[in-house]
Each structure stands twice: as structure tokens, then as C-alpha cells.
């Protein structure tokens, strides 16, 4: 049997790829990022297309020889790279139109809480996509996972790890809201069951553990799983601060950053993540594991602890590099004559000295802003390293005495290079 997995390099999509391949399917992934696809599953077949741009005829061609289509694509919030309307509704409507009347099983991954009348646009658009499928004549199964926990860390699961890794303190927020989770492997196995026809057509079921717990308890369990010591204190997080963080994360979303602190993510947590496990217990051949059982099934290693701590430090590193380079360039422009005088005192003519300072300042400011655009982070960091090395080389020739300057203007460039290399090394989120 042949299966096409949409969003095949995402957290759930990649797990579905592996599980379907293990179950004997010939699997093809579909996504818009060729680099991410090759990193996640280099030996699988891939179709590199943007699902939001595929027409009904495109879908007919892509699914012509498929027995199963698994839709694991999705987005949390509108941003520079994502449109909820296009991903959750338009693409689904076109896909369903292409599958109507065809003997192809559609396994659609939705979300607990999806509803056309939901107040949050994430759940509302998911609900409208689900409705389009339910009203069609396609052979469909809709699965709605709760908060998915797996060995891979992305989005909400990465945020949980980071919150659990905070040194000395632990955040205390939404203490009265219940959170239910589901193990990633349970989601993947449910998809295999649906793909092989063991789940009746027309099944709509939540995938969730039997009972939830408050978010602080979930974070505490994650902290123990990571092996970090008990916190010395809890840190209450006021709602106004959360709102401010969410607005800032929303703004960064327009620069391509998919922060799990965006408004939709925090609003979903504030409303609670709760589903009904009963329909799946009746339809499937296994219940979803509890959070305790999930953590026991994937022992934490040093990689987990490194990731949790680095996830906290990464945005700090990006912010510091942006501030350092943009301010450095701005100061050079504001104090152009003083900066040029350092070069003229070493024998450089006034004109070339001013040009050198101007060029350096513009480059500094450009790199300081470029690193804020998510797709350019790695390239901007490497640009910072190259400009820093050129600065050290040129400065050593023109003003070698600055190596012995008490304020260490050359020596201080070395930590900046190290920070840029560190950020570049962990910039990829797939």
C-alpha cells in the first residue's frame, strides 16, 4: 500500500512516516522545505510543494496512485510563513474535493478542542477543516490529539522542557487549568490503524490520556524526568506579563519566528487542553498512555538536558547579537569623525578612513537587523564571523597597538565570534 504524508517532516508527520514505513507501506512525504525533509527522512521519497498553493487538479495527480493520505500539516498562528485559512481550510477543502468518490483513506490530524465555533482562530480553522471533511463523501478518519509529547522537541513540547529547565525556580501559571497529553507513538500507531482500515470510516476521536493535571504539575513531572534538582522557589507569572510576552512573540511571528509563546499557544493553555478518551478506546485496540507512562517510555539523556537549557539561551543569544551589532554600527555613524580619527592617526588618509567607517557601520547595522529575520539567522551569524575576522585582520595591520589597549577592543571581538558560531550551530528548529 502507498501512503502520502502531508507535513511529513513535522513532529507528528515524521512519526507517521516512520510508523507507516514500519507497517509495510511505501511512504512519500510532502512538504515545502527540501532541507528539512532530507534531514528528517533522507531515505524516503519526497514531494516538495506548498500545500496552500495546490489546486484540486494538483491533488488529483498527487493522490492518483495512493491508498492513504495522512494530513499532518498545520500551523499554530498566522505569520510570515503561515496562513491558518490557507493551511487548515482551503488546502483541506481542495484535497477533499480531489478525493471525493475515490477509494483513498484520508487520515486527518486535527486537535483536541477543534470547533467551528471556537473563540481561538487556531481551533476555529481546524474545526472548519474538519467540517469540510465530515461533509464530504471521502473515506475519512479524523484524529484529534491532545498536547503531543515525544522524543523530538518542538513547539509546546519544547516550551515544557524549557520551563522545566529554568535554574533555581519554576514558573507557576494556569494552576487551575487541566492539561492532557498524548504520547507521540500512540498518535502514530492510531494513524497506522486508521490507514490499514482497522478503524471504521467516519470515526472522529480524541487521542488523549485518561486524566489530565494542572500545568504546574506537568512542568514538575517534566523537571524530574530531565533529572534537574527541585526548584528553590516557584515564580508566579502575572497575566499582564504573559500578555506582553505573547504580543512580543506575535510580532516576531511576522519575522518568521514560530514561538510557542504566541497568543494562540498561551490562549490554548489558558483554556485547558482536555479531550474525551472514550471514543478512541471504543474504536482503537489500545488506550493512549498517561503522561507518567509516556515519560517512562523515553528516558531522558544528556541531549535532553542540553536542549532544554539551550532552548532558553537561544533567543537571548540572538537578541544580544542583534543589539551588539546594530548599536556598534549606529555608534560608528554617530561618531564618524572620532572613529575615522583612529585610522587617520595610524596613517590612513581622511577620505578612505571615513569610507571604511561608513562601510563598516552599514554592514554592522545590516547584520544586526538581518539576524532578526528567522530564515536568515544562520547566514547572518556567519556574516558576523566573517566581518569580525576581517575587522581583526584589517585592524591588526592598521592599528596593531589596539591589541594592548586596556579596554581590549580587539580581544572583546573573540567572544562575539564565539556567540555567533553558537547561535548558528543551534539555529535550525528541525
Automatic annotation (TrEMBL):
Keywords: Membrane, Transmembrane, Transmembrane helix. PROSITE patterns: PROKAR_LIPOPROTEIN. Pfam families: DoxX_3, NAD_binding_10. The keyword Chaperone does not apply. Residues 7-150 form the NAD(P)-binding domain. One of its GO terms (molecular function) is protein-containing complex binding. The keyword Transmembrane applies. The chain crosses the membrane at residues 310-333, 353-373, 380-398, 410-427. This is Oxidoreductase.
Amino acid at each position: 500500500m502507498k501512503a502520502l504524508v502531508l507535513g511529513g517532516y513535522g513532529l507528528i508527520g515524521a512519526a507517521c512516516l516512520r510508523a507507516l514505513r514500519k507497517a509495510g507501506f511505501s511512504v512519500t512525504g510532502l512538504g515545502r522545505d527540501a532541507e528539512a525533509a532530507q534531514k528528517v527522512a533522507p531515505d524516503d521519497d519526497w514531494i516538495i510543494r506548498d500545500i496552500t498553493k495546490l489546486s484540486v487538479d494538483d491533488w488529483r495527480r498527487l493522490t492518483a496512485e495512493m491508498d492513504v493520505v495522512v494530513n499532518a500539516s498545520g500551523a499554530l498562528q498566522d505569520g510570515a510563513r503561515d496562513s491558518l485559512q490557507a493551511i487548515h481550510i482551503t488546502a483541506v477543502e481542495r484535497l477533499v474535493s480531489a478525493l471525493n468518490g475515490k477509494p483513498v483513506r484520508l487520515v486527518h490530524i486535527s486537535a483536541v478542542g477543534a470547533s467551528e465555533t471556537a473563540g481561538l482562530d487556531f481551533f476555529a480553522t481546524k474545526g472548519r477543516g474538519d467540517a469540510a471533511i465530515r461533509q464530504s463523501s471521502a473515506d475519512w478518519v479524523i484524529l484529534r490529539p491532545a498536547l503531543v509529547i515525544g522524543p523530538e522537541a518542538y513547539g509546546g513540547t519544547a516550551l515544557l522542557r524549557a520551563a522545566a529547565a529554568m535554574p533555581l525556580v519554576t514558573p507557576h501559571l494556569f494552576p487551575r487549568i487541566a492539561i492532557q497529553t498524548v504520547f507521540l507513538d500512540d498518535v502514530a500507531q492510531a494513524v497506522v490503524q486508521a490507514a490499514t482500515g482497522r478503524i471504521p470510516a467516519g470515526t472522529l476521536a480524541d487521542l488523549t490520556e485518561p486524566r489530565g493535571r494542572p500545568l504546574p504539575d506537568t512542568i514538575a513531572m517534566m523537571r524530574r524526568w530531565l533529572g534537574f534538582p527541585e526548584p528553590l522557589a516557584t515564580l508566579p507569572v502575572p497575566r499582564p506579563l504573559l500578555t506582553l510576552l505573547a504580543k512580543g512573540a506575535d510580532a516576531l511571528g511576522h519575522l518568521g519566528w514560530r514561538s510557542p509563546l504566541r497568543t494562540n499557544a498561551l490562549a490554548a493553555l489558558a483554556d485547558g487542553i482536555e479531550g474525551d478518551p472514550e471514543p478512541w478506546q471504543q474504536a482503537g485496540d489500545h488506550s493512549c498512555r498517561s503522561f507518567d507512562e509516556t515519560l517512562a517510555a523515553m528516558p531522558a539523556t544528556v541531549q535532553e538536558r542540553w536542549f532544554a537549557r539551550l532552548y532558553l539561551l537561544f533567543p537571548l543569544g540572538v537578541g544580544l547579537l542583534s543589539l551588539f551589532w546594530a548599536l556598534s554600527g549606529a555608534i560608528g555613524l554617530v561618531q564618524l569623525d572620532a572613529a575615522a580619527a583612529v585610522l587617520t592617526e595610524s596613517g590612513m588618509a581622511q577620505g578612505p578612513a571615513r569610507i571604511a567607517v561608513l562601510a563598516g557601520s552599514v554592514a554592522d547595522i545590516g547584520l544586526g537587523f538581518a539576524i532578526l529575520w528567522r530564515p536568515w539567522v544562520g547566514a547572518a551569524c556567519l556574516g558576523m564571523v566573517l566581518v569580525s575576522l576581517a575587522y581583526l585582520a584589517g585592524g591588526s595591520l592598521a592599528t596593531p597597538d589596539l591589541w594592548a589597549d586596556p579596554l581590549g577592543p580587539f580581544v572583546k571581538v573573540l567572544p562575539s565570534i564565539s556567540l555567533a558560531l553558537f547561535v548558528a550551530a543551534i539555529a535550525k528548529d528541525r
